[in-house]
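As a representative case, we now present a protein record of this kind.
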Amino acid sequence: MKVSDTIIKEIADDLDCGMRCYLHKDTGELKSIMHQDDWMDLDVEDWEDDMAKLNSNPTDYIEFEKMDNHNMYKVMEDFATQLKDTVFKDTLLEALNTSNPFKNFKWQIENSDHFRQQWFVFKKSRYIDYVKRQLDVID
């Protein structure tokens, strides 16, 4: 299935925001829906029509889910190890070796003006690769 770079980027962005993405196999139409388990106060009405279509024809769609914790940890670790700034690299690697690696890594990134944008660019690139790998498995 040929999927445009624009749709791949949209899927990557939506997954990163915690959504589940469904791509219609024939039309290429993308439906992105919030994952109900992640949002307790989710207003399901906003997605009722899409969910009804998905539930009535599940085999018509390819489902994409966000990265699991293992894969996201690897992305964070890869980002840290590729940094040339050894001080911040060590700070991030130390954050990843704590009892709350995701929280501590995020805190370090959020409090770093210089590396924050680099992290978002790196993570988006990895999410795009992640989506492409899922599509490769389907083909």
Q: What stands out?
A: The chain has a mean pLDDT of 90. The first strand starts at residue 19 and ends at 24. The beta strands are 19-24, 30-34, 61-64.
